[in-house]
Specification:
The chain is α+β, with helices and mostly antiparallel strands. The chain has one domain: YbaK protein. The protein is 20% helix and 26% strand. The chain has five helices and nine strands. β7 and β8 form a beta hairpin. It is globular and about 50 Å long.
């Protein structure tokens, strides 16, 4: 199979390679319920040493910069309580943590969650966190620009490998709320 974007040696429908995914991502693919069929989630094998966006795009195809998204975990705090959420924005932008994300969470303060919290709560590797397979009940904030991209490259739950899926699929992920201006 050929990936719909980038220059990857190996591309496989994610349901056919569950053993390469972290447990929460594999379970989400197994239980996939979205307007986009599960076989349109494509897993591509990648070198974990070049997982960061700029180096990754240089190696696997410059066009990936416009088709890549990042998923980050944000902690919102209000009155001593903390709420975790994941935010997805195109990789050429940054999450508006103290504007759009904080407001949506109704938080007084918001910041990127510490690495150990993000990894521990998601069951995914740092640098590979994906919105596919997040903990049940988490809000998932998706920048509207992501849903307009035909194919989006995002983490697979591990630093090795990425997922490619249609941008419109992000709006149908559990807990997803599409927001204009989340990525700035």
């Amino acid at each position: 199979m050929r990936a719909p974007l980038g220059d990857f040696d190996n591309a496989t429908p994610a349901p056919d390679c569950l053993g390469l995914l972290t447990a929460p991502v594999a379970e989400a693919v197994r239980a996939w319920s979205n307007d986009v069929p599960a076989d349109q989630l494509i897993y591509v094998d990648t070198d974990p040493e070049i997982a960061d966006t700029a180096a990754f795009a240089e190696h696997y195809g410059a066009g990936l910069l416009d088709a890549s998204a990042n998923c980050v975990v944000v902690a919102g705090r209000r009155g001593g309580e903390s709420t975790l959420t994941a935010c997805v924005v195109l990789s050429r932008t940054r999450v508006d943590v103290n504007g759009a994300a904080r407001k949506h969470l109704g938080a007084r303060k918001a910041s990127f969650a510490p690495m150990d919290t993000a990894v521990g709560e998601t069951g995914m590797e740092y640098g590979g966190i994906t919105p596919v397979g997040l903990p049940a009940g988490w809000p998932l904030l998706v920048d509207s620009a992501v849903t307009g991209v035909p194919w989006v490259l995002i983490g697979s739950g591990r630093r090795r490998g990425k997922l490619i899926l249609p941008g419109k699929a992000f709006a149908g992920l559990p807990g997803a709320v599409v927001i204009d201006g989340l990525g700035v």
